[in-house]
Amino acid sequence: MHKIDNNRVEYRIKIADGFENKFKDFIASHSDLISDCNLEDGIFIASFASQSTYEEFYKLASREMDIVYAKKDIDDDARSNWYAVNIPSRREIGIEQKFIEYSINNEGINEILLPKTESTVWKDQVKKTVKECMSPGYIFIKTTSPAYIMKAAADIDVRVSVLDHPVSEDEIEKLRIKEKEDCNFGQKQSYSVGDHICVCDGTFKGHNGYIEEIDEKNEGQLKVVLPVFGRGVSVKLGFSDIRKVNK
């Protein structure tokens, strides 16, 4: 392996599904080009003696396998932070995808998190899994500077605002844990029109009612009928706001 010197560069390399083992074999057979390589969460973190060495390595590797992206890793002294980004509500999942697509070919956006829940619904005897954003109107982006977020938003034509203070890693981890817990719970339940439910969050927390309509256009939204002041009132809620109850 090459000795890492002051010209060393690091890249985060994502290989297409099915090519990971081939990439490992490629690394082993081209140890003269790569200084070090580790696999973290499906991403290869590779070190090269210089930028020109990386370029030679990439040229050879891309001929033999599909490389989804290769991004230069940030310097140790330029640490990135998580930021809460305000985005148009009810468009969170689509906007997340736009940021992901942008980040593949552009530097500056290191990670993207949009916590979601999953629920199984039945409509017209068809089973469907729907996703719902756990943080309506917000997405979380890790970057070295909020300026990268604003540039990305301008390029993908989305109006955003970035909260001033970074979000701590502890808070991000709590969101990840909550997302996993809610998805596991939601996947154990299925919802249909007419199901009796209890509201577990929000203004109507503690109220019992039933599902009146499942909204196909706004994924993760539904209408429930709740007794308010002695009469049934139709209210729009999300699947994460309710839990099924047995009657």
TrEMBL record:
Superkingdom, natural source: Bacteria
InterPro entries assigned to the protein according to its UniProt record, in alphabetical order: KOW, NGN-like_dom, NGN_dom_sf, NusG-like, Rib_uL2_dom2, Translation_prot_SH3-like_sf
Annotated ranges, domain KOW: 190-217
GO BP terms in the entry: DNA-templated transcription elongation; transcription antitermination
Gene3D superfamilies attached to this UniProt entry: 2.30.30.30, NusG, N-terminal domain
Keywords: Transcription, Transcription antitermination, Transcription regulation
PANTHER family the record matches: KOW MOTIF FAMILY PROTEIN, EXPRESSED, RHO-INTERACTING TRANSCRIPTION TERMINATION FACTOR NUSG
Official protein name in the record: KOW domain-containing protein
The species this protein was found in: Candidatus Cytomitobacter indipagum
